[in-house]
Amino acid sequence: MADMTIVGLLLIVVGVTVDHPAMAQRDESESIELDLREGQVYGWSDYITVLTGPSYGSRAECDSQAVVRVDFSGPYKSARFVLQYNDQPRLWTFDVSDSPAADGYGGDPGLTSNMAETQIFNKQMRVYSNNLPGYMDATIDGDLLIRIEDDIIDRNSRLSLEISDERLEWNRIGSKKKGYINSQFLYTLSGQSPMYGEVDYYIYAGFNRVPAGTFRSGSGLCKASVILLKAKDVDECMEGTHDCHPNATCSNTPKSFRCQCRQGYVGNGRHCEDEDECAVNNGGCVHECTNTQGNYRCDCYDGFMLHDDGHNCIDVDECAVNRGGCQQICLNNMGSYECRCSADFVLSDNGHTCISNKGNCKKQEHGCAHICQETNRGTICQCRPGFELAPNRKDCIVTCSHGNGGCQHECQDTDNGPVCTCHLNYLLASDGKTCIETCAVNNGGCDRQCKDTQSGVRCSCPDGFTLQPDGKKCLDVDECRIGNGGCDHDCRNTVGSFTCSCHKGYKLLTNERTCIDIDECSINGTCDHTCENTPGSFWCYCNQGYQAYGITHCGDIDECSINNGGCHHTCKNHLGYYECSCRAGYKLHPNKKDCIEAEMCIPLKAPAKAVLTCNKVGDKETCGLTCKTSAHFSSESEDTYTYSCGSDTEYEWTHEKVNATMPSCSEHVNAPSLKRKAQFKFSADKCRLRRRHRERFQDNFSRALSKQRRYPCTELCQVNYVNLRCGNRPTRTKRAKKRRGRRRKGRRREVEGQSGSVIVAEFELQMNPEEPTDKCDVNCVRRRTEKKLRRTVNTLRKSINREQFFVRFAGTDYEVMRRSLKADRGVESICTLGQIMVGDKCISCSVGSYFNMESGRCEKCPSGTYQDEEGQLTCQPCPSEGSRSATGIVGARNVTECGGQCSPGHFSWDGFVPCIPCELGTFQPDPGRTSCFSCGGGVGTISDGATSFEHCIVRESCSAGQYYNVQGGQCHRCPHGFYQPRAGQNFCVRCPGNTTTDFDGSTNENECKDRTCGGEIGDFMGYIQSPNYPGNYPSNVECTWHIVPPKGRRILVVVPEIYLPAKDDCGDVLVMRKGASPYSVTTYETCQTYDRPIAFTSRSRKLWIQFKSNGANSQKGFQVPYVTYDENYQDLIEDIVRDGRLYASDHHQEILKDKKLVQALFEVIAQPRNYFKYSSAESTAMFPRSFIKLLRSKVTRFFRPF
């Protein structure tokens, strides 16, 4: 029996339907049943295929998953799904769609436009439309959502869903929760043509998961039945075999029919009676209501006509047509009209014509309001029909029988005349006659918002709509048409609103308009070494000696794997660098690659403008270095340098033993400039050291110095800087006060300022030297410069002490305080740029060198550059030769020395010109070498001077990803962990760091991948990461992580995005469950790419997570963060992550992808009371208002339930 169960499960997994032993006979009902607790399938049908059979579940809760396909191309045109929930429904427990790619959010990734989707998510049912033209008019969110039904299911409930062409019907069995939707934007099961994709007759249903995969799953659905309803072979309504009443409609149903009384009739459909609509609220008619068979009719009194709404009555303007029959003047009234006459005429008894005013009545002396009747008894007054004679026997009072008493709706006669009232939901206007329509009547005719006012209803539109000229209808405003809606990047119009979105690499600010660049470099760990942020992206750079892999990582370059690092003998790799070494009897050449005889001194070369005198005694050679006449060493103050080389120095020159370079000589020598610091004080009204005042003060002070009578500061003298600060006022003696009172008349002073604040001016005075001459050498010039600087300072001190020195500050001249000048005793010597101080002289950097601004020293020009002038700050690049960059000696003094090194394919005894080409059978790829490499194996070259192994004549030409084995005389594929991007090479390059390749024969460094499983596992926060992330993960890798939170805490996981191969038959899988057993409780599982984030809580207290890849394809993978939280907040966390609004908005999705915001969100999740720390201005600057509103309602409800 066990063997049969295993075989049965295998058949189910591959899509083959099986029978339950107890149901071997085909059931005429054409149905199957899925037991999602035990993992069993019962029943069979040609038109139902189990694509993914239910596995043996945990049995602790209903969490087994299955996917079935239903075929509507046969006789069955509808399917009923009966869902039984014995456990609490959690996440996606049911999802049925036209497409196998349904992922739980509506829409389809390009397979078909004819895709509708219905899902059960927690306790909620959501219905999504397809993408056929016009679908947005049927939705409620401007996207795909058609309907939401809350609390459609619960624990221990049953739900029936019936799906047919363009129809969905639901019924929670045993309750009143039922309904249906008919829409062309629902399931297309009759061969409707799609906008894209193929025509098919299938629907796909996922149980405890979505059809697209297990990445969105749920639990709680324990049993499910799929029942195919047979074709409607008998249509009683069409054949007339029904017993519906003549005043009822007949609707055909499977195996039966349904009768329903037509509008205007009541009954059970088989017996229908006319409904007297006038019996209730007069049928809504404001005047007269007449009941008819199956309907009713509203009529108006004379003088009124029926409004377009069929219920209200409005006044008829009789005067508008032929003056209402009046001979002279017609006056319209509510419900009637009145004829009048001009002067000298009176209205006749017929009420229309006018007659001459003669006789008692005609002279109107009687005072009758309407009709004057002359009788034998005298003159009497009468009224026209609809009026009553007033008690004064002359005036006429209107009654309700005439024009409805002037009332628009209802009229009631009283002693004081008619009183007007209005029908239900109307208001009486200020004239006491007219009735104003209110918003209670058909929303006042308004399309959206209606407001009752004294003058009637006023229609308005919500934001995002504009009121049309009819004052009733609202039209959606396409905000994107005007200025792109204010969006920085993309604008998408929605019904009544719009949304902005940003390009990749940017994020939307909380104003939901502005896009700013995401500074990826501000996130720790973005790059292993150096990160450079760029608009919309970033670049990672590696330190020298390292190579990039996996986009953001850096690994050590094994230079020794690249042609032995160019080393003549032995190469040894280190982290970030390598070094060459030589065999016994040899030593390393200065080029650090070649090996030369150990007992050999390399001849010295004299630097620029220097003389080298050498002599040799035995095996010891001694050289003396001096500068030519009128030249000086540009590094030290010595006159002569001595170097030696021999057996006692291990055949290295003494300066080479200490890694020192030989000094060079320069002819440009000058005396240094001298600087001296000093300060003085002056009084001002207030010590307000504004920036513009400080900047102008230095210029004013310099001008004041230049006006001194003796030793003014001009030409070679300059003020380097002046710093101002507020100081303390000294105590003045009586003698000083008396002296200040004896000032000469006419002297400029700011007397008022003397009682104000004290300002201290600190400055630096510099005296530059003159050029040396035959009569005054450098030493003479220095002495003169010192004297000038000293006397300039002394002259300033005397002027101040004599109260003769004034400075201008903030537009006012102030006298410098007497005896306030304090000067430093020390004098500082400086040289101009391009010179260095040697002793007490300034010597320019020699030719072949430049002045390094950072080190403040003269340094030799690097290889490939030269400098033929003294005292320069940079070196000139050597001219290149064709496509090859120029090389040359270090410290080249002219263009000629640029070619000092031997070029590739050449060598010499010291690596410098003159050079000879490499012999046949040898090659040299590097410049400045003393030998050439052999092709090996007796292999020759096409010609001498070969620069690469490619020029060696071998038996076969190796392509990229291969190397040539000289001993075997054939090409071999590069092994694992190596690659070769070029053809015709005799080596392969080792992958950087600890990376390796998936296969042998790799052709570039991008195939080098780190197989280390990434992530950090912590008690409260952490993350897991696919190997080599964000680069493509390696093949055939397996990673396992264990998350075991502290006692009393649960796990929340956020998957921002995950990239796995789409066409890989689920060869690469990420699964999260309680333990390693495949039967343990599963929280999450996926094998596909999804760029929409999702958050979920673990279904178990601990998580065993595994990622496995096969050898077929590769993708970017994932980085999945998690947080643990106090289990006392379980209900709150579940409420947040299960709310569909968390994922519905693009803005909310971006939050779950933003590492910084997820970090802040995790703080709230880990400790929900932290929410109040972010709920003020700080959180507003971080999160959209809608997100804060979503959290606020849930957190507040949790902590303040009452």
Automatic annotation (TrEMBL):
Gene Ontology MF, one: calcium ion binding
Any GO BP: animal organ development
InterPro entries: cEGF (IPR026823), CUB_dom (IPR000859), EGF (IPR000742), EGF-like_Ca-bd_dom (IPR001881), EGF-type_Asp/Asn_hydroxyl_site (IPR000152), EGF_Ca-bd_CS (IPR018097), Growth_fac_rcpt_cys_sf (IPR009030), NELL2-like_EGF (IPR024731)
Membrane topology according to the record: Single-pass type I membrane protein
Residues in the signal sequence: 1-24
Location of region: Disordered: 731-754
Coiled-coil segments on the chain, per record: none
Record keywords: Calcium, Disulfide bond, EGF-like domain, Glycoprotein, Membrane, Repeat, Secreted, Signal, Transmembrane, Transmembrane helix
GO CC field: cell surface; extracellular space; membrane
Main location: membrane
Domain CUB: 1013-1125
Domain of life per record: Eukaryota
Annotated localization: Membrane; Secreted
Keyword Calcium: yes
The name this protein goes by in its record: SCUBE1 protein
